[in-house]
Write a structure and sequence with these properties.
Elements lengths: L2 E5 L8 E6 L2 E4 L2 E4 L3 E11 L2 E10 L2 E10 L7 H20 L4 E4 L3 H27 L1
Parallel strand pairs: 5-8
Antiparallel strand pairs: 1-2, 2-3, 3-4, 5-6, 6-7
């Protein structure tokens, strides 16, 4: 029997349905056999008044992401968040049963992580430059 999870991935998008059945994840972009998953990445970011949650299933052929964007102050009881969290938990149980040593990364990785670091560093330098310029005048 399939576990079915339905949620709206973003406020202006319609609902998506995901099914977890017999070691396979069926979603809007196709089907992924869970035995192909090599590692996971869990991202939880806040951008202004929005919160973006994403689970990346990194497999031999690329990455399948299961994402949700909600209001930053949305309560934990919202149906979309509950369904997304249920799917993530079910995937975690299914994947840990197949591979207890599966690697899980927390936060952005790769170029996205470096890009955010560089933007932060440039912002810091610009702020220092403005402060020094104001102090010298």
């Amino acid at each position: 029997m399939a576990d079915v999870f339905a949620f709206r991935p973003a406020p202006l998008r319609g609902p998506q349905e995901w099914q977890l059945e017999d070691g396979r994840l069926h979603g809007p972009s196709g089907t992924l056999a869970l035995d192909r998953v090599r590692r996971l990445r869990l991202v939880d970011r806040r951008y202004g008044d929005a919160r973006m949650l994403r689970l990346d299933l990194i497999h031999d052929g690329g990455t399948l992401d299961v994402s949700l964007t909600i209001g930053a102050l949305a309560p934990d009881e919202t149906p979309d968040l509950a369904a997304w969290s249920g799917l993530v938990a079910a995937l975690g149980h299914a994947l840990s049963a197949r591979d207890p040593g599966l690697e899980v990364e927390i936060g952005e990785g790769g170029l996205a992580g470096w890009g955010m670091f560089v933007v932060g560093l440039l912002s810091l330098l610009a702020g220092l430059g403005i402060g020094l310029g104001a102090a010298m005048s």
